[in-house]
Amino acid sequence: MREIPVELTERYAAEGWWTEETVGDLLTRGLAAAPDTEFRVHSAVRPWEGTFRDVEAVARRLAGGLRQRGVGPGDAVAFQLPNWMEAAAVFWASALLGAAVVPIVHFYGRKEVGYILDAVRPRVFVTAERFGRLEFRPELCADVPVVGVVGRDFDALLGDEPLTEPLPADPAAPALIAFTSGTTRDPKGVVHSHRTLGHETRQLAASYPPDRGRQLTAAPVGHFIGMVNAFLIPVLDGTPVHLTDVWDPAGALRLMRDHQLHIGGGAPYYVTSLLDHPDFTEEHLRYLRYAGLGGSSVPAAVTTRLAGLGIRVFRAYGSTEHPSITSSRHDAPEPKRLFTDGATLPGVEIRLAEDGEILSRGPDLCLSYTDPALTARAFDEDGWYRTGDLGELDEDGYLTITGRKADLIIRGGENISALEVEEILLAMPGVAEAAVVAAPDARLGEHAAGFLRMLPGHPLPGLAEMRAHFERAGLARQKWPEELHQVAEFPRTASGKVQKFRLRQDIAVGT
Fold first, then answer.
1. pLDDT by residue (tens digit) across 234-264?
2. 476 vs 107: CA distance, rounded Å
3. How far is CA 209 from the centre of its chain?
């Protein structure tokens, strides 16, 4: 773990941003305050309906069973599950045990899952036998001591005696290891403590509009913000949990109408896909009061469109490493909400480097990466995090993101490493060189576009051939290129590097 400057530690504690409460303590307090709050999973394959008390009972029995198997503070508990009740039970049980939970996005393929399990060496792995493209592969977790498969033997993990109290744990110790795809070949493991995760939960809960309504969570709970919004903030607030395990705009519109559920935002695609669906009516606008947008580029055309429909839009900026750097309040002046990414949140500091890169630090900033080399590159000795993003500050201190230093594609809120996709393209027969860049996408913000230099005598592969190749490679489908272009030669710098900005310009002008 990186060394956090003493003055920051003392300041965060003095301001009450860091407390001695663990995530297990937070959950215990919140669940006791509102045990009869509704918890419901809207699913075609695994629907579930009950209360916080019901889910807590499963979580405490799971914690008891895992404790009997020797799991406790300092261990890692991984799960790869859709937005199901069992995902909440695993997360809550891990927190009660003082273990570090490792959520894995349910659509990650065997390549990503194998890397994550090898990187963290969890004591426990819980997954589903099959869901969409998720398929249980015993060979990936052969070295994991305790494995449970929902729908097959998950119940065998439950102990007869529930864990009645959270186990004592160091609030500065890891509570969460969240993996996010980035500019490296493999997902980056981001380590958060009980303190950083607790502050983020309290901060987000305080920033949400009080009349936001009963929220539908469709963001994967294997992703940081989906997990916090589904399993922590509702417990802190005593508000109902409604999950859906697939994003289907038609289905979401039905749930909004039939169950009076609200969509509160997320990546712009979650909102625009509803507005663009033929089933959308003016009646649905009552369940779209607010749109807190982030996790992807937020075009001004989207924010002005939503505002024109009477939806109160506000934008936020952060990452898995530093979840909430800036945000506009829902009651901020409209130009700030529509056209900037907000002002710094309590305790957060930002400054711009000479090249415009955003540096940040604050009480919700992660401890480190699981890879020490990444940690050394991303953090300096004064606690500043190099975000890799470029921005500008206005006279009121509001930040606007202007670009990214990192070679990263953000598709519908999910990060895609260009390098990882390039390596798989290079394994195709006849490909001499490959470059992958972000292409504009009207629905998802961005998608991957591949540029290939082919060997003489080899034609550019078709999309069907390319997709079959990526399927065999086992890479998650959202990372696959959605368009291919052929080049005779790549534009390069004097040192031989491919000038990707010129490839992006070629896409923009349609060449």
1. 999 999 999 999 999 999 999 999 999 999 9
2. 6
3. 22
DSSP state at residue 355: T
b (16+ CB within 10 A) / e for 255-265: bbeeeebbbbb
Q: Cβ(449)–Cβ(439) under 8 Å? A: yes
Token digits of residue 162: 């529930």
Task: For residue 362, give the DSSP letter.
Answer: -
Q: Which secondary structure element, helix H or strand E, spans residue 41, and what is its range?
A: strand 38-42
Q: Is 321 helix (H, G, I), strand (E, B) or coil?
A: coil
pLDDT tens column, 173-218: 999 999 987 545 678 999 999 999 999 999 999 888 888 899 999 9
Q: What residues have CB less than 8 Å from 264, skipping those under 6 apart?
A: 208, 212, 215, 290, 291, 292
In terms of C-beta density within 10 A (0-12 exposed, 13-18 middle, 19 or more buried), how is residue 54 classed?
middle
Domains and CATH numbers, the chain: 1-17+320-404 (2.30.38.10), 22-246 (3.40.50.980), 408-509 (3.30.300.30)
What b/e readout covers 183-215, taking b as 16+ CB neighbours within 10 angstroms? beebbbbbbbbbbbbbbbbbbbbebbeeebbbb
What pTM value is reported for the model?
0.85
